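Hi R.,

As promised on Friday, here is the backbone we talked about, encoded as structure tokens. Could you run it through your design pipeline when you get a chance and send me back a sequence?
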């Protein structure tokens, strides 16, 4: 039996990040290949990793770079091998050396039409030049905005807004948190947040806020930067949180895209990779101190599903809407997928809190894929 490339019981943040990227790449690339063939488009798409060595432990031979795992997955499909272009960058020489060695050991790696482009440096002109060849191509990009010179908001905006990329942004919270009052990090803070946001963070941190307040301050500053580069045709950013072994916030992953289907795909992957899934609702977090993933049912009245039900009742009191409108208008910024809404509406119907207008079709608790999004739901007064 073939060994799964996924980590079925991830034990650290690197394995969870790997699962997220691999599961997304697998479904995204298969759909791309099918679309390219059906619509007779240019037979090329790209994967870009601007922090290829992040999370690799050179003293632990079991850790493998995400890009190596992506190539190991991609090599299994002939059409993917023919269409995929890969750009790899890291500023640490030993990391690039380890990645290069692991890639050369991949069976059939020489059959890729476009050999992987590897670069050892900050993100420099040679790397930026390589991006020009994929500017209009469907692209998945992994970007660390804090730890690499040459990686900035203009690059992200060009990839997503002016290009055709989906971006996973790594926000190294711990590194930023430790840098707020370091003079040698003043330029990095300025490049990340801009003058006004950087000044506000430094002033706020002088008051020694509580840890959760510090986290909120940094997240608010980062999300305001996101707001400045995004436009109305972007989907709302998705966010996944990681803790370290000291039970403190380590970093975040943000997902940016203009594609509605890709946004839904990553939302579902973030959910299924959550450490705790309560009533089908993921917490979009991983904490290595909390053991393996748990799927639980609320043991109290005020669980995740109950909270969603009550929120829907408050938000849409006395209104009649289609299921798709409820989902589209309510889920932005929340760790929720469409099935969570279907489950909540089924519960509310059983409690006589709503009326569902059906035409022959029944709402099916175990399968929402056949539901008609145009079904109307009336909330009680």
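Update: got your reply. Pasting your designed sequence below so it's all in one thread:
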């Amino acid at each position: 039996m073939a060994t799964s490339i996924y980590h079925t019981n991830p034990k650290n943040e690197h394995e969870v990040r790997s699962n997220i990227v691999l599961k997304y790449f697998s479904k995204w690339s298969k759909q791309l290949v099918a679309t390219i063939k059906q619509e007779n488009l240019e037979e090329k798409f790209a994967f870009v990793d601007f922090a290829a060595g992040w999370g690799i432990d050179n003293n632990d031979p079991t850790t493998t770079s995400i890009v190596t795992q992506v190539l190991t997955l991609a090599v299994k499909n002939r059409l993917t091998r023919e269409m995929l272009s890969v750009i790899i960058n890291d500023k640490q020489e030993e990391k690039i050396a380890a990645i290069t060695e692991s890639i050369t050991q991949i069976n059939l790696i020489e059959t890729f039409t476009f050999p992987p482009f590897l670069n050892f440096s900050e993100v420099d002109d040679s790397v930026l030049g390589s991006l020009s060849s994929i500017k209009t191509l469907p692209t998945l990009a992994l970007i660390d905005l804090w730890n690499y010179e040459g990686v900035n908001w203009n690059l992200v905006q060009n990839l997503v807004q002016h290009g055709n990329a989906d971006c996973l942004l790594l926000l190294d919270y711990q590194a930023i948190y430790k840098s707020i009052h370091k003079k040698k990090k003043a330029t990095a803070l300025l490049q990340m947040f801009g003058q006004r946001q950087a000044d506000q963070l430094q002033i706020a941190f002088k008051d020694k806020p509580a840890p959760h307040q510090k986290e909120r301050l940094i997240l608010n500053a980062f999300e305001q930067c996101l707001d400045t580069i995004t436009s109305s045709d972007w989907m709302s950013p998705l966010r996944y949180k990681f803790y370290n072994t000291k039970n403190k916030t380590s970093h975040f992953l943000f997902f940016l895209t203009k594609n509605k289907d890709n946004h839904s795909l990553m939302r579902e992957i973030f959910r299924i990779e959550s450490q705790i899934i309560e009533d089908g609702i993921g917490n979009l977090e991983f904490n290595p101190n909390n053991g393996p993933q748990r799927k639980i049912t609320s043991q109290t009245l005020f669980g995740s599903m109950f909270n969603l039900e009550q929120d829907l009742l408050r938000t849409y009191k006395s209104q009649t809407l289609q299921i798709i409108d409820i989902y589209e208008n309510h889920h932005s910024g929340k760790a929720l997928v469409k099935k969570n809404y279907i489950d909540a509406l089924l519960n509310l119907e059983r409690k006589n809190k709503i009326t569902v207008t059906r035409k022959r079709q029944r709402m099916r608790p175990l399968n929402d894929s056949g539901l008609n999004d145009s079904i109307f739901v009336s909330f009680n007064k």
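One thing I noticed while checking it: The longest strand covers residues 249-256.

Thanks again,
M.
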